[in-house]
Amino acid sequence: MGAPPVAGDDEAFHEALRRDDPELLYDRAPCAYLSTTPDGTIVRVNETFLAWTGHRREDLVGRRRFVDLLPVGDRIYHETHYAPTLRMQGTAREIALEVVCADGRRLPVLVNSVLDRDEDGTPVAIRTAAFDATERRRYEREMLATMRRAEESEARALQLAQTLQQTLIPPAPPHIPGLDVAAAYRPAGDGRHVGGDFYDVFQVATDDWVVVLGDVQGKGAEAAVVTALARHTVRAAAVDHASPSDTLRVFDQVLRRAETERFCTVVLVRLRRRDGVWRATVACGGHPRPLLRRPGRRPEPVGEHGSLIGLLSEVRFTDTEVTLGPGDALVLFTDGVTEARQRRGTLYGSGRLEDVVDEHRGSAADVTEAILAAVMTYQRDDARDDIAVVTVAVDGSPAA
Amino acid sequence: MDAVARHRIRVSGVPDGQPIVFAHGYGCDQHMWRLVAPHFEDAYRVITFDHVGAGGSDLASYDPERHGSLQGYADDVLAIVHELGLEDVVLVGHSVSAMVAVLAAVAEPDRFDKLVLVGPSPRYIDDEGYTGGFSEADITELLGSLDSNYLGWSAAIAPAIMGNADRQELGAELTESFCRTDPEIARRFAHVTFLSDNRADLAGVTVPTLVVQCRDDIIAPVAVGEYVRDAIAGAELVVLDATGHCPHLSAPEATTAAIAAFVGR
């Protein structure tokens, strides 16, 4: 039976195939090829491998194991990963190794191996093909280096954000004689980003304190800059301006002149004690009004709405003064509380907040923690916005 | 998560038999024992598991601090022993797990009946008067070698490199294959393993110990096996006529016989 009739290019192709005997296919294959005993002793190797590595056949066959041709690091990898994989799976593919050439140069290769077994399943031989991977290795190294740099830079950014956040929130509110103050802060999501909520409690004079709580629009470094500006400006302005609304007015002017598009909402409470009685003056700048809770009465908002800070050419702020007796409490909070939302559900809202404040009449810490816990539970521990709460309660039970 | 799920623990053999726990070495997982462990199922309660970071373990349980030393891995083994309520344990540790076994047995000698250390090395790096087989530069080179294979291990990136249909199948195969290790954990584990020095811990072993060693092992040479035997009071050494670092794979019958002869006494 003769060859089927062919013509033109097909004929030349088939002729080439006929001349390409198995020996040539093996020795001149475009990959390095070697066979070893199951323990790795080289029994056969092709011309391509010898040409690539400069080794002489007589130095390898029967004398060296494949693992002997690897640098030390690859030997460990070979013994701990490659050899076990080959034994157990019968094949190992795309293992990246380097072969030490005769002149000491290293040839990066990608190695595929198969383990041949006899009829009883006993390993007989390992056949290994190695592909020159010089360019690919360079590419992968660059890729890996880029990835590591990105990871490092992300880690640095995270650390910076957390350090910054720590400087914006006081570790614990100061102790004010006669008052019970507690604060809670929880950044949105996984806490990796600098949030915009802040609070501060500081003393201006004897029996004269300021509590400020606010929310800078946005997140990240620029929000942090505005937060820092807010804290410092409010502290400075409060010294010169007894009235909270005047303090907010100064802060508004400073923020509008600052090189930022960010605006902010703030609630400011000035607490002064005269003749043993605490008076609180409340001013809001675009911020939810704080809750005032008195013994035996349901909590209700106190103060008047004011303008957003840093946005408008004309602003209006109002001072509201209340007297705080024993057992009274003021609860300041950000919209991360009232606007907490369940997935596709309704907002947490002021009604639920008032319920929690109504039900927890213990210490300031008690009601503060109860609010945080209730809001976190409501949104199933997935806070989309920062949450800040500050509670100021007057010590003692109400007079009988 | 409990230890059983964390380490993908497998228990077989005789339920009320003496427990024999097989701990795998660096670079692979509990499948390494599949040619040896089944031979003990007739008489023992056989337990295999994956170290955290290896094989089917829960990667989220990896704790850089806890697993920053071999003691952390030993504590994992003790947690397994406690959770399963094992007493009179025969603990078989290969490679780095040989030293993990030593640390576990030093911490709670009463829990263990016998130790079998396969290819142990208390220190891989040469030191004055000690031949471990490697220099610190060699270990740095190993980490480079792990990097070279990082992308090959990283299933998420793998399909993007070759961009052909065959690659997708390979990616899946790698993901499901034996000896799977998270690349970043493998790097850290390499540090912990190959930079460890547990020579001083050997003297603390009071449990009867067998050292099983290949005649030709570039990772733990015979001299190291002899060192371990000499450092543990009453320890015995069996040198197998096998090559490589994994006699339980390359010479499973001889390895099984050596372990069985020792633990069956």
From TrEMBL, chain A:
<feature type="domain" description="PAS">
    <location>
        <begin position="18"/>
        <end position="70"/>
    </location>
</feature>
<dbReference type="Pfam" id="PF13426">
    <property type="entry name" value="PAS_9"/>
</dbReference>
<keyword id="KW-0378">Hydrolase</keyword>
<dbReference type="InterPro" id="IPR035965">
    <property type="entry name" value="PAS-like_dom_sf"/>
</dbReference>
<dbReference type="InterPro" id="IPR036457">
    <property type="entry name" value="PPM-type-like_dom_sf"/>
</dbReference>
<dbReference type="InterPro" id="IPR052016">
    <property type="entry name" value="Bact_Sigma-Reg"/>
</dbReference>
<dbReference type="Pfam" id="PF07228">
    <property type="entry name" value="SpoIIE"/>
</dbReference>
<protein>
    <submittedName>
        <fullName>SpoIIE family protein phosphatase</fullName>
    </submittedName>
</protein>
<dbReference type="InterPro" id="IPR000700">
    <property type="entry name" value="PAS-assoc_C"/>
</dbReference>
<dbReference type="InterPro" id="IPR001932">
    <property type="entry name" value="PPM-type_phosphatase-like_dom"/>
</dbReference>
<feature type="domain" description="PAC">
    <location>
        <begin position="93"/>
        <end position="145"/>
    </location>
</feature>
<dbReference type="InterPro" id="IPR000014">
    <property type="entry name" value="PAS"/>
</dbReference>
TrEMBL record, chain B:
<dbReference type="InterPro" id="IPR029058">
    <property type="entry name" value="AB_hydrolase_fold"/>
</dbReference>
<dbReference type="GO" id="GO:0016787">
    <property type="term" value="F:hydrolase activity"/>
</dbReference>
<dbReference type="Pfam" id="PF12697">
    <property type="entry name" value="Abhydrolase_6"/>
</dbReference>
<dbReference type="InterPro" id="IPR000073">
    <property type="entry name" value="AB_hydrolase_1"/>
</dbReference>
<protein>
    <submittedName>
        <fullName>Alpha/beta hydrolase</fullName>
    </submittedName>
</protein>
<comment type="similarity">
    <text>Belongs to the AB hydrolase superfamily.</text>
</comment>
<feature type="domain" description="AB hydrolase-1">
    <location>
        <begin position="20"/>
        <end position="257"/>
    </location>
</feature>
<keyword id="KW-0378">Hydrolase</keyword>
